[in-house]
Design brief:
Layout (H helix, E strand, L loop, with lengths): L1 H11 L4 H4 L4 H31 L16 H10 L6 H13 L13 H36 L3 H16 L2 H15 L18 H39 L2 H8 L4 H14 L3 H21 L5 H10 L3 H29 L2 H7 L1
Helix pairs in contact: 3-5, 3-14, 3-15, 6-9, 6-12, 6-14, 7-9, 8-9, 8-12, 9-11, 9-12, 12-13, 12-14, 13-14
Length: 351
Amino acid sequence: MFRLLLSVLFIIVGIGELKINSLNYSRIFRSVFFRFINSFIVLFLLATFIFFMIRLAPGDPTQKFVSAEASPALIENLKKSYGINDSLSEQYLNFLQETLSLNFGYSFSYRTPVIDVIKPAFSFTAFFAAIVFVFQFGLGLILALFITNTSNSKIEKVADNLGILLFSIPSFVIALFLLQIFSVKLGILPQGGLKSYDFHSFGLLNKFFDYTSHLILPIVTLSFAGIALFYKYFKDSLKANYQTDYVLFLRSIGTKEKSILRDHVLPNSIIPSISIAGITLGLLFNGALITEYIFELPGMGRLTMNAIFARDYPLVMGTTFVAGFCVIVINFLADLLKILFNPQYSETSLN
């Protein structure tokens, strides 16, 4: 069954049957299995860390629901209803049990199940992160191809230094700078939110442009660091592949440069970037936290920040767990793709 599944996956990614027959399936299965166990352990440690960090923080979430005139009995009943009076070990065991079934309880602030509060915010963050990732990957690759094929060392130096600068600047600094220029000074882009107040009165085309105008600054804010990272990685990888013996051989037999780039250099430069892509895409779920809050976007970041300020224990644990789970799953899938494209990686991962 596992052999059949791997064969289908190899056909999907376009590797072909000839390469499939030469694979060591038992070694690949063991590598994938150990990666899965590894991811599960990390997920367990993440859940444990989240629980104790939230529970050990000072303060009491029930204070926002009671007034100074409330009786001690009422406050005690409120704490009991939320399980706050239970011992820390009992709360922890209940949390692990409920987490396994994706039941994070009821939000203190929204008075609804946490999973129902998370769903719309997660959908937006996933969509937002996917758009940013496409920009990062695509523009980073295009810039790397341009710099690699140019013979001007000054342009390359400027691009390298600019990339280091953009990568080192925190996203919230970039966000505030862009807001000051394009929203406050020039007034050509909205300061925040996902749509205008009179959005429902717009036509279909105007609604599209309104959505786009609200997303431009957040997308640009999050894209800078990723573009710089992919540019640096792709540029070094392209240059290294151009200096290999097989490229020299292809040039010696008269193969066109476009064919060398398209059929050999580019695939061999992109495939090793799967790990970087997995880490970057996973971190976008966390990196969007501050950006979404600054631009008032209805995503996981803003929801998490509001939950933290409101000391909404179930919602904080739910949003943080879901974001961490996405990072772990994305990196697991990236490792799986690396094994599928390069079976020798399974031996390295086992070692």
